[in-house]
Specification:
Elements: H1 15-21, H2 24-32, E1 36-43, H3 49-54, H4 73-93, E2 100-111, E3 114-117, E4 140-141, E5 143-146, E6 150-153, E7 159-161, H5 164-175, E8 180-183, E9 186-190, E10 193-203, E11 210-219, H6 226-229, H7 234-257, H8 271-280, E12 285-291
Helix pairs in contact: 2-4, 7-8
């Protein structure tokens, strides 16, 4: 079976090399200019998707940026965005033309076709992810459709952050509550799709123009061959739900690649594709990182 890709990276590729050479920085620059961009990691369970997004600290969340640390795309992106904002303000501040930036973050998971806010404060527990108790509340949220803006998650928290350290701590705390489980291919397998979105709002004092950019990082749950992982009970239901949603995502991508209109693409068949249709079939830019496992 043959696949086409714009770039292939070998197993010796470092996180820093992948971040610099894969096109991620181009997506971040576009978000700073007011575009909607998305990056998602796809592959079999245990193939390294979460490692790509979060890096060596993937099991517990996002770690502070260090140039020589095996950090993934998300912590490096936080560092990149705030460094770019600081540089722009420093370069233009003396002339009074620096844009004013505001950065906000949301974090959700889709578990068995139900959306949960990973930053929702309140009482009550749940989930196998463990971690900090700052965001322990689990309450399902509805995906609704706006006639002009498209699909959105009603009631999703969106927290303002003033710098890289605050953003990293917030994301790390939220991601600690993802649902995870163990099977023969992965001791910490994500049982849900996770979406972390950075909203970058900019106001230009020169002409009063507003720019509303965003970049969404999607850590997809891994596809499973049930004959290999042999799940039972809740784990079996989780695996079936994951595989169905990934199958729908595949059909949507195939339909778009064939030039079908949005009305002919089955993006309404899952919560994941409803929330991604603006990136996959709209005017935004998307980068897909496909992880190939030696077990395939």
């Amino acid at each position: 079976m043959a696949y086409k890709s714009s770039r292939a990276f070998g197993p010796a590729t470092t996180q820093a090399q992948f971040f610099a050479q894969s096109g991620v920085t181009s997506l971040l620059d576009d978000a700073l200019q007011g575009m909607s961009t998305t990056l998602f990691a796809h592959g079999q369970t245990g193939s390294g998707k979460t490692h790509t997004i979060l890096g060596g600290e993937g099991a517990s969340g996002a770690a502070p940026y260090q140039a020589d640390h095996p950090l993934g795309i998300l912590p490096r992106a936080l560092n990149y965005i705030f460094q770019k904002i600081a540089a722009q303000q420093q370069q233009r501040g003396g002339r009074g033309g620096a844009a004013r930036f505001a950065v906000r973050i949301s974090c959700l998971e889709i578990y068995q076709e139900t959306v949960f806010d990973l930053m929702l404060r309140g009482g009550g527990g749940g989930g196998g992810g463990g971690g900090s108790a700052a965001f322990p509340r689990r309450q399902s949220l509805s995906v609704r459709e706006h006639p002009a803006l498209g699909f959105f998650v009603d009631g999703l928290s969106c927290a303002p952050v003033r710098g890289e350290a605050e953003a990293t701590a917030l994301v790390s705390c939220a991601l600690a509550h993802r649902r995870v489980g163990a099977h023969c291919l992965n001791a910490r397998s994500n049982r849900s799709h996770t979406m972390v979105t950075l909203y970058v709002d900019a106001l230009s004092p020169a002409d009063g123009a507003h720019r509303y950019g965003r970049v969404t990082f999607v850590d997809l749950a891994g596809s499973e061959r049930l004959k290999i992982t042999d799940p039972s009970g809740v784990a079996h239901r989780e695996a079936c739900s994951i595989n169905r949603s990934l199958y729908t995502l595949g059909k949507v991508v195939q339909g778009i690649n064939r030039g079908l209109g949005v009305g002919s693409v089955p993006f309404r068949d899952s919560k994941l594709t409803r929330l991604l249709i603006g990136s996959l079939g709209g005017k935004g830019r998307t980068l897909a990182s496909a992880r190939a496992s030696m077990r395939m």
